[in-house]
Write a structure and sequence with these properties.
Blueprint (H helix, E strand, L loop, with lengths): L7 H24 L4 H24 L3 E3 L7 E3 L7 E6 L34 E6 L10 E6 L4 E2 L2 E5 L5 H7 L2 H12 L8
Parallel strand pairs: 3-4
Antiparallel strand pairs: 1-2, 2-3, 4-5, 6-7
Helix pairs in contact: 1-2
Length: 191
């Protein structure tokens, strides 16, 4: 029988074994334009931590990374929960998901990818890395779900974020507005 639980010390040892290979994979993906898509795959989970820290700092509300849900982050205080889906995107804000075609997802595959349903999360956070894929110079943009509803299938979200939506949401002002409207706070991260 396999024990699914490992200690922190065992986990740290395994991480140390993997880090040189993860580092090399990231370097290779970053320097080869054909590998840029792989950067997002490699950094997807790390992006969730960056966004979670950003949201907690900007809102003053505690939240955590979740696993096995259709959202990546959820607030954890006694207020109404806010569910956030995180995407790492260098260029196009595509909205693909790697879900399986199943009975649960029936009718959501019109583009070759299974579409998100409109009730799975409240907003999307797009982490746009800096020019060299780093956290330095990166931006986080927030898009409320109501901006993403597919006009042809109202229970689903669009498979690709529209250019007009991207243009509207790709500003510091919009990010501040979404934070204020969702979190109903003007928390000062410096004080």
């Amino acid at each position: 029988m396999v024990n699914d639980t490992i200690s922190i010390i065992e986990a740290e040892k395994s991480v140390d074994e993997w880090l040189p290979f993860v580092r090399q994979a990231l370097i290779n993906a970053m320097v080869d334009p054909k590998g840029h898509r792989d950067v997002g795959k490699i950094l997807a989970l790390s992006s969730e931590y960056v966004v979670n820290n950003f949201l907690m700092k900007k809102t003053g509300r505690p939240s955590m990374i979740v696993v096995g849900e259709s959202h990546d982050i959820i607030t954890t205080d006694d207020s109404t929960p806010i569910r956030t889906q995180v995407k790492f995107r260098k260029g196009d804000w595509h909205f693909e998901t790697t879900r399986r075609n199943s009975a649960k997802n029936q009718g959501t595959n019109s583009t070759g990818h299974v579409a998100y349903r409109r009730n799975e999360f409240d907003m999307v956070a797009i982490l746009i890395p800096g020019e060299t894929f780093g956290i330095s110079g990166s931006k986080i943009r927030l898009v409320p779900v109501h901006e993403l509803i597919n006009p042809k299938k109202q229970d689903q979200l669009v498979p690709r974020i529209r250019v007009a939506t991207k243009r509207k949401c790709d500003t510091d002002e919009n990010t501040t507005h979404v934070i204020e409207s969702f979190y109903k706070t003007r928390h000062d991260p410096l004080g």
